[in-house]
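User: Show me a protein chain along with its predicted structure.
Assistant: Here is one chain, sequence first, then structure tokens.
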Amino acid sequence: MKKSDFQFDLPPELIAQAPLAERSASRLLVLDAAADRLVDGRFRDLLDLLRPGDLLVFNDTRVIPARLHGRKRTGGEVEVLIERVLGTHEVRAQMRASKTPKEGTQLELGDGVPATVLGRDGEFFRIRFDTPEPLESVLHRIGQMPLPPYIKEADHGRDTTRYQTVFAREPGAVAAPTAGLHFDAPLLDELRARGVRFGHVTLHVGAGTFQPMRVDSVHEHTMHSEWLNVGAELCEQMRATRAAGGRVVAVGTTVVRALESAMRDGEVKPFAGETRIFIFPGYRIRSVDALITNFHLPESTLLMLVSAFAGRERVLAAYRHAVEQRYRFFSYGDAMFIVPPKDH
């Protein structure tokens, strides 16, 4: 299996550069593989697609302002994109600079916050913030939201709110779990009133989610590592939902990755730690019964995960339909509701 097996033609103008005025106003393409049908709709159709007793599982990670600008004390400009917070004052980050910084290089970030390059960690740098101010406070003061590279029209005031889910509560992600961006408080209230239940996992989405696959063979790709937490309360919610005949519905591919990483002996069990799980066709997803997800990049690992859930040919046919119907793609774009085939 090659990454080119997941290629599709996408006109650049279909890449959403800004969110809609209303979160839940986006379109929704329903791919019901079990019934072999494709339906164009609106995101609020979830009120009819979901049933009383279904369990929606959200990723409650919170995006941190992970993009920083500054300079070396010797004068050269630098751009820092935090990939992971390692401790109270230390991070792992990508860095752009005219000359690769060496161990011990002194930086001044934002409005003059001192920092030191501690060394390399593969393609990343370890950086220590040399200030007694809490790191979260520093980032909120001098950082910017780390928008994906395909969004060219940043509006930092707007993006601080809109590139964040309304249920985000655990800081640590450097990319949003974008399927969750479509939910607003009124829609959540209506779903709750109709008997839909909510659960949460935490998976801190890393910058590696945007890194292209550098090998042609899917089987040779190594996934980036991300930290997750699946709690005992959610595991009990899932057991009770299935026992009562309800469905477990993942809001986003990050939820699927978290739940599948927590699979033990055929069921999801409490787990906190790192995952490098790579899901592509041939892998059987057992933790969820339906998936809400955005439209993903060509040849991306996220598109491969969706293809594992519903079938590569069905998914690519749905994507071709979405292009023809002028759906909006990627983080600020429209969404899909996917039911897998009966033999899944």
